[in-house]
């Protein structure tokens, strides 16, 4: 009854949506209590809103959940899509709807803390509510962390919590020159505290590298003149450390005074959006946000860019983005109006700007890997593969198929699944080719995929009930051409590609219905595809060998008068191996269902005569 009422409500909402005008505007979704749960804009209200109440299987889980809570909707007609975007931003800011992207700016302030312990330490802190000296506040946690790490590295200060009044064996940092190891008991407290004080002054000098280096240089020269060579050597090392750190920072500096770099990594319907913030020609901060309910970059950025910049006053003139920039022309116009200057969204294709964007992508993948317990390399490989193949989403589930036979005999197929970049063996499946005899890899692949999607329609097997995001076949255009009609027959729209090997049976390229896509220059995607191809080949050929071995065992039993397929299968199932059948006595053979005393005697005699 409840489902009936809900379906009736959805039909009423769909009918209402079909009466909407084909004009720009803002739509406002409400629940049964009248609360606003989602606000969106549209170029044509009717086209956009009707999508919510039909083709539900194509929605993400977040959209499905939102639609299930919609009881009514309102709309406001606008004179242009840009006006709709402005109104949408204003309404979202006022109402904070549950299902819109809402980015909380909960960063607060950050501090550098110098503890009041006997052996003072330099640490990061988020508040000033405990004892100690605090330098700050800073807006950027990234800057605070980087500054503390720099100070420790330059002045060789510890980052551990050891009791330095007790002598202990130094850790690795001492042996690689990153810490002077007061834990050894060879550094007087007075000298240590002097070093901490110098590090404090270095931190307070901040950006003024030349002052820090010049001061240290003068002190080094003075120490050398006074024949204090050990002190002079320490000061020299500090100067070199500062220069090395600054050189490292210049590696991530840019040719433009100010720009933001934005990239996204996906796993399923969870995205991590990474922002690298460059000011004064170098990286000064970074942020990341996890967002659920999206499976492609365009959908994420259509909301995220507005939510992220709506309260920002420092909007740079350049924003690098890992999506085609022309898709966001309206947002670019809105940003320019808000910043009162030209703001350009740029999707670089080559050069240093692309390298910086790639760095941002890798950071997004690394953050996502921590959340999903996958490695950054696995996340990057999936995102790289999606970009290479032009997939609308980053594939979470990848199914791969391979055929194995010997001159047409024992013809079988293996299906493996990679989930989030790793083998997911609970979803592996084996197939015996039943539709024909002989060797025909194209017909075999066609049969296997047809049976796989028949099982999907039944919905009885958890593995088959889950459609993959990508299908990779071991083979080239022929295999792809064989299975595409199968997908059409079952009304399934999935990306299908082949995996092509070279003459040495190593992965060479991705096959399409057109030209092959070379993947050797895309190392992470290449490694992932190679692993998939090797694994599906291993799985299929191991099944083939097992079938061939079983049939060979059965063929030996067939030489015994009275043994057919059923009795041979029963014997193998019972004893598990031919060795145990050969060694079995008549009484043991009689325990097998269908084996009479007379037949047991024949089996026993056969193996004794042929031993």
pLDDT < 50 runs, ≥5 residues: none
Strand percentage, roughly?
15-25%
The shape, in one word, is extended
Number of DSSP helical runs = 20
Q: What gyration radius follows from the Cα positions, in whole Å?
A: 34 Å
Portion of residues within helices: 40-55%
Description:
The protein has 20 helices and 19 strands. It is an alpha+beta fold and 611 residues long. It folds into five domains: 2-95, GIY-YIG endonuclease, CATH 3.40.1440; 110-249, no CATH class; 258-373, Nucleotidyltransferase, domain 5 (2-Layer Sandwich), CATH 3.30.420.340; 413-542, 2-Layer Sandwich (Nucleotidyltransferase, domain 5); 558-609, 5' to 3' exonuclease, C-terminal subdomain (DNA polymerase, domain 1, Orthogonal Bundle). The strands form four sheets. Strands 12, 13, 14, 15, 16, 17, 18 and 19 form an eight-stranded mixed beta sheet that branches. A five-stranded mixed beta sheet has the order 9-8-7-10-11, sandwiched between helices. Strand 7 (258-267) and strand 8 (270-279) form a beta hairpin. The longest helix is centred in the C-terminal third of the chain and has 35 residues, at 523-557. The N and C termini lie far apart (72 Å). The model has no long low-confidence stretch (mean pLDDT 84).
């Amino acid at each position: 009854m409840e489902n009936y009422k809900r379906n009736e409500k959805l039909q009423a909402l769909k009918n209402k949506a079909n009466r909407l005008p084909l004009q720009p505007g803002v739509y406002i979704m409400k629940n049964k209590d009248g609360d606003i749960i989602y606000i969106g804009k549209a170029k044509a209200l009717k086209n956009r809103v009707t999508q919510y109440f039909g083709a539900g299987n194509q929605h993400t889980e977040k959209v499905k959940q939102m639609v299930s809570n919609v009881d009514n909707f309102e709309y406001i007609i606008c004179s242009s899509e840009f006006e709709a975007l402005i109104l949408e931003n204003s309404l979202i800011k006022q109402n904070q709807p549950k299902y819109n992207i809402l980015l909380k700016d909960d960063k607060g302030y950050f501090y550098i803390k110098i503890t009041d312990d006997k052996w003072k330490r330099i640490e990061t802190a988020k508040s000033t509510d405990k004892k100690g000296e605090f330098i700050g506040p800073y807006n950027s946690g990234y800057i605070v962390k980087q500054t503390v790490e720099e100070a420790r590295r330059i002045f060789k200060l510890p980052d551990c919590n050891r009791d330095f009044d007790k002598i202990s064996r130094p850790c690795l940092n001492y042996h690689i020159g990153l810490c002077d190891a007061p834990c050894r008991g060879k550094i007087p407290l007075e000298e240590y505290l002097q070093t901490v004080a110098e590090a404090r002054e270095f931190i307070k000098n901040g950006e003024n590298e030349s002052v820090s280096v010049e001061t240290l240089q003068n002190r080094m020269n003075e120490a050398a003149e006074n024949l204090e060579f050990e002190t002079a050597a320490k000061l020299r090392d500090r100067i070199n450390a500062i220069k090395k750190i600054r050189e490292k920072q210049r590696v991530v500096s840019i040719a433009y005074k100010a720009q933001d770099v934005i990239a996204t990594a996906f796993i399923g319907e969870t995205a991590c959006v990474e922002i690298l913030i460059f000011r004064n020609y170098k990286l000064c901060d970074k942020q990341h946000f996890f967002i659920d309910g999206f499976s492609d970059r365009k959908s994420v950025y259509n909301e995220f860019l507005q939510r992220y910049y709506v309260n920002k006053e420092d909007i740079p003139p350049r924003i690098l983005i890992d999506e085609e920039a022309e898709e966001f022309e309206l947002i670019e116009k809105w940003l320019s109006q808000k910043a009162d200057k030209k703001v350009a969204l740029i999707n670089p294709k080559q050069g240093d700007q692309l390298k910086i964007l790639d760095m941002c992508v890798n950071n997004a993948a690394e953050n996502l890997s921590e959340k999903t317990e996958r490695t950054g390399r696995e996340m990057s490989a999936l995102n790289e593969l999606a970009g290479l193949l032009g997939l609308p989403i980053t594939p979470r589930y990848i199914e791969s198929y391979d055929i194995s036979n010997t001159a047409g005999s024992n013809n079988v197929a293996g299906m493996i699944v990679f989930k989030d970049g790793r083998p997911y063996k609970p979803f592996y499946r084996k197939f015996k080719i039943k539709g024909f005899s002989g060797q025909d890899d194209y017909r075999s692949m066609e049969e296997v995929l047809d049976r796989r999607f028949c099982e999907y329609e039944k919905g009885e097997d958890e593995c088959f009930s889950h459609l993959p995001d990508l299908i990779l076949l071991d083979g080239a255009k022929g295999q792809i051409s064989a299975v595409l009609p199968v997908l059409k027959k079952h009304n399934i729209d999935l990306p299908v590609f082949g995996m092509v090997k070279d003459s040495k049976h190593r992965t060479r390229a991705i096959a399409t219905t057109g030209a092959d896509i070379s993947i050797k220059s895309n190392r992470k995607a290449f490694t992932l595809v190679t692993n998939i191809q090797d694994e599906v080949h291993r799985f299929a050929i191991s099944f083939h060998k097992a079938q061939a071995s079983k049939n060979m065992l059965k063929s030996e039993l067939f030489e015994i008068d009275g043994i057919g397929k059923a009795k041979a299968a029963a014997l193998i199932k019972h004893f598990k191996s031919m060795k145990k059948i050969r060694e079995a006595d008549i009484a043991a053979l009689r325990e097998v269902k269908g084996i009479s005393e007379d037949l047991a005697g024949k089996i026993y005699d056969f193996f004794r005569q042929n031993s």
